[in-house]
Amino acid sequence: MKIDFFSAKKYDIAFFDDANKTTGFDIFYHETHLGPHSVNIIEDASAVCVFVNDKLTREVIKILAKKGIKIIALRCAGFNNVDLDAAKEFNISVCRVPSYSPEAVAEHAVAMLMTINRKTHKAYNRVREQNFSLDGLLGYNLFGKTVGVIGTGKIGKAFINIMLGFGCKILAFDISPDLELQEKNINYVAIEKLFQESNIISLHCPLTKENHYLINKVSINLMQTGITLINTSRGGLLNTADVIEALKSKKINALCIDVYEQEEHLFFKDLSLEIINDDKIQRLISFPNVLLTAHQAFFTKEALEEIAETTMDNIARLDKNTMPKDAPTMLSF
Ligand code: NAI
């Protein structure tokens, strides 16, 4: 079977070629995203393999079906970029990797929090220039702080466990609270209470129609002045314009984001010699109290191995018709 593989990077090729030693598919790697501009390069393939910023709209899926694509294999957990109704309508199965080292993402969220708080990124540069002054490097203790966690699935849970180790108090919100966490006496509260009482808020829920712009003028107004906000989930959870206003007014004291609303135009590319026509990201980068990474929270060796193995296994099972209908990796048959 031929697989057209989009948004391919060097590291994808290395890990997928390795995982494909057992499956033996013909993988054609394309650097470009999958979208209306590129869908016509697909030829004689039965599957496409895509990532977070490929755009699988109805229009694209209709063309995929005409080209004989039977499988859309997402090599990520989130699937807000795929029109699942259209996939069903055109009889294309959609699979994903629901879990690949949730610890990788949770640990990155903590790394960002520790960096923005204790300013180790600034200290590193200072010391290299023989500037040993401490001015401007003041942080706060995490011990005793209240951390609001929105979304307590696999990543949220891993994040909570780390924060408990720091001696933080947890306030959790989830549309379906986790039994195991409740048994550990993790305090689930109304989202308004979480906004009002947290010193730090970390987002670990998927992006859905219901929670688009969850962090906006109104929710920010409920928060304490001086909040630290972390988003490693999806850019659309934040109304970026409202967040910029809150940074300017100092309501938000520190912002850590690994995801951005318009990231598909920017992330995973070296644009160091380009003029970037996105004023919001330029404004964010200009703040000294904003730490932005380019969707790298998942990027560990363990996670990449798991992503490649699960994706190839998903495709192989769908190809052989041995995928159970209720498999957790399936979004649509
Ligand atoms: P999960 O499915 O295990 O957990 C998500 C949790 O969010 C569930 O408990 C669900 O009930 C809850 N939820 C759904 N809608 C909600 C809402 N409106 N408000 C509050 N809670 C809600 O997913 P997992 O593996 O923990 O991943 C979470 C998100 O992290 C993914 O959806 C994805 O967007 C993001 N992610 C980011 C990565 C990165 O590299 N930055 C890598 C992997 C995932």
List the helices and strands and how they pair.
Blueprint: E1 2-5, H1 10-23, E2 26-29, E3 47-50, H2 58-66, E4 71-74, H3 84-89, E5 93-95, H4 102-118, H5 120-128, E6 146-150, H6 154-165, E7 169-173, H7 179-183, E8 187-188, H8 191-197, E9 200-203, H9 217-222, E10 227-231, H10 240-248, E11 252-257, H11 279-286, E12 290-292, H12 301-319, E13 330-332
Parallel strand pairs: 1-2, 1-3, 3-4, 4-5, 6-7, 6-9, 7-8, 9-10, 10-11, 11-12
Antiparallel strand pairs: 5-13
Helix pairs in contact: 1-12, 4-6
The protein binds 1,4-dihydronicotinamide adenine dinucleotide (NAI).
1,4-dihydronicotinamide adenine dinucleotide is lined by residues 77-78, 99, 102, 105, 150-156, 173-176, 204-206, 208, 210-211, 232-234, 258-259, 295, 297-298.
Structure characterization notes:
The model has no long low-confidence stretch (mean pLDDT 96). It contains 12 helices and 13 strands. Helix 4 (102-118) crosses helix 6 (154-165). It is α/β, with parallel strands linked by helices. The strands form 2 sheets. The protein has a 7-stranded parallel β-sheet with strand order 8-7-6-9-10-11-12, sandwiched between helices. Strands 2-1-3-4-5-13 form a 6-stranded mixed β-sheet. The chain has helices spanning 10-23, 58-66, 84-89, 102-118, 120-128, 154-165, 179-183, 191-197, 217-222, 240-248, 279-286, 301-319, and strands spanning 2-5, 26-29, 47-50, 71-74, 93-95, 146-150, 169-173, 187-188, 200-203, 227-231, 252-257, 290-292, 330-332. It binds 1,4-dihydronicotinamide adenine dinucleotide. 1,4-dihydronicotinamide adenine dinucleotide (NAI) is lined by residues 77-78, 99, 102, 105, 150-156, 173-176, 204-206, 208, 210-211, 232-234, 258-259, 295, 297-298. Residues 77-78, 99, 102, 105, 150-156, 173-176, 204-206, 208, 210-211, 232-234, 258-259, 295, 297-298 line the site of 1,4-dihydronicotinamide adenine dinucleotide.
